[in-house]
Amino acid sequence: MELSTMLFLFVSFLTILFSKSLIKFFFSSKGRQLPLPPGTMGWPYIGETFQMYSQDPNVFFATKIKRYGSIFKSHILGYPCVMISDPEAAKFVLNKAQLFKPTFPASKERMLGKQAIFFHQGAYHANLRRLVLRTFRPEVIKDKVSYIESIAQSCLKSWEGKMITTFLEMKTFTFNVALLSIFGKDENLYGEDLKRCYYTLERGYNSMPINLPGTLFHKAMKARKELAQILAQIISTRRNMKQDHNDLLGSFMSEEAGLSDEQIADNIIGLIFAARDTTATVLTWIVKYLGENTSVLEAVTEEQESILRAKEESGEEMGLNWSDTKNMPVTSRVIQETLRIASILSFTFREAVEDVEFQGYLIPKGWKVLPLFRNIHHSPDNFKEPEKFDPSRFEVII
Ligand code: HEM
């Protein structure tokens, strides 16, 4: 073959290859040169973090939404971010784990334990989710209602004649309920030690992650270590007893769960964290809203008292049971409305695992994506008069 023919074939081959890549480039989301969402990125590295913290973060986000719409970009806490305030879009981001993975600062992972459910995806995550949900099935919770009631009653008794700090008391209450769900009847054996370590862990959770003696972070890390030792002791005692337990620890320790002791401990520590502060905060807001809305308080009181009266009249046992809890529509709506209006978790973080085309914009790989729960719950597009505490908005029209 002549040299010119060979050269021609070689150039043709390169052209074909190049054209193929070019076609692929222009027809993929990366190549189409999609624009980034609207918004501003602030200063290099610090971005708009100071603007966000120097005002109410919710006002910061609300101002951006007004200006740029329901999807916009910013740069906070050291990361480029895309904020989402449309409910359907938020649902999409939260449900597409293959595109948007959960992400937490490394210090949180160290503190709660790297094997905890929050930091994982895929089969390991699905297995943990199944094990957790199995323990909180109605059939399981059903049997715990009277225990939970007795915890509530002993809290109420301890408040008699005292001035209390509602949030602290709610934390004690939710901690005791968490211990009951996790350790069942063994809760009393380790309660005080767990509580002491847990309080220290919690105080350091949002501190600067500087692990030097004397810092809150250092104390929290020490408490975390002690918690792991206590849990190892509980697990080993249970293994020696060779009994089945109908609680979360029992579920984690079952053979088919296939979890190591370290995985069990990380998830127990993580779950107490997920369950306790959240629930205590919501309970505190419920007390506040009931205190401020006399007619709602009267309706809730009437609903609760009518359950008691019915029991008295029928001669039924007076303690609260599962079917009573199904008979509290007003109380349930108060809880739903409090979850909406208080929106105790303003937003969460996900991270784009690859370049993603989203509503005509590009979300680059590695950018954080924040579904803005609070702004969604406080938008008049989703809830009429969003700033009004109105449980009747959750009435179901039959
Ligand atoms: C009112 C109280 C609560 C609120 C407002 C709340 C809120 C949330 C939110 C928003 C998430 C998602 C975070 C994300 O994906 O980035 C979450 C996850 C989670 N919560 Fe709660 N939570 C509450 C109570 C509880 C309780 C009582 C438990 C105990 C069983 C619990 C266990 C979990 C777990 C295990 C996850 C991770 C789920 C997963 O990765 O699949 N939470 N919670």
From TrEMBL:
GO biological process: abscisic acid metabolic process; sterol metabolic process
Domain of life the protein comes from: Eukaryota
Bilayer-crossing regions: none
InterPro entries to which the protein is assigned, alphabetical: Cyt_P450, Cyt_P450_E_grp-IV, Cyt_P450_sf
GO MF annotation, one: iron ion binding
Entry keyword set: Iron, Metal-binding
KW Acetylation (keyword) present: no
SUPFAM superfamilies in the cross-refs: Cytochrome P450 (SSF48264)
Family: Belongs to the cytochrome P450 family.
Protein name: Abscisic acid 8'-hydroxylase 1 isoform C
Provenance organism: Glycine soja (Wild soybean)
